[in-house]
Amino acid sequence: MSATWLKLITIFCLSCGSESGGVVYRNIGESLTIQCRSNETDEEFLHLKRGLNEDDVLVKEHNLEPKAISKEFTGRLQLNGKFPNIDILIKNVTLQDLGPFWCMYSKFVKKTSEYKMNKRSGSVLLVVTDTTDTTSTTVKGHGKCETGHNDLILGSIVISAVVLLGVVMIFFIWIIKQKSLRSTAKPRSVPTNDVYEDMRGTLKR
Asked: Rounded to whole angstroms, how far apart are CA atoms 183 and 166?
């Protein structure tokens, strides 16, 4: 399995497992709020990442203005709250925004002289739909569905009538056959004692 698929599965699992995340549906032009939360008070940076390549949408340093904002989101981001718990509002979402978003925190570790990335939070899998296409598709689909529904009802009635007529015809044919069998049946011969009586009369004489 390729590394891309592994990343996709990992991000999707994180999105489903997040308390404030999951799959979120938005129409074009609507807004999305991502809730970034951390229980640690010594965090230094907040990173909003997106996509399989984990691109930075913005980096927010404690008590400083956000920086390194992606060009795609220029003028469309609004931050609310107090660091490290910040709500990031993405305005006017587009089809290009479709995909996973998540928050990550980092802090500088003196022992290793490196920045340590902490766990992800606020994972959201954004699904953007086109309202125009959806409306037209829904209307057309509704018309097709309604027509198909009427055809289905009409077909069911015709089939039911044919089946009922067939059952009635079979019943009448069975009755007619039974009557004809009874009328054509040979009468059973009943044994008599005429010969025996005649013989007794002859013997007496």
From this structure: 26
Collect all residues with Cβ–Cβ distance below 8 Å to 54 and sequence separation of at least 6.
Answer: 7
Q: How much is the pLDDT for 143?
A: 46
Q: Count H helices, E strands: the chain?
A: 3, 8
- Extract the tokens encoding 137: 């598709």
Around 86, how many Cα atoms within 13 Å sit in the side-chain half-sphere? 28
Report the SS3 class of residue 141.
Answer: helix
Q: Which amino acid is at 189?
A: S
Round the CA-based radius of gyration of the chain to a whole number and report it.
Answer: 43
Among 23-37, 99-113, 146-160, the range scoring the smallest mean pLDDT is: 146-160
30: left (phi over 0), alpha (psi -120 to 50) or beta: beta
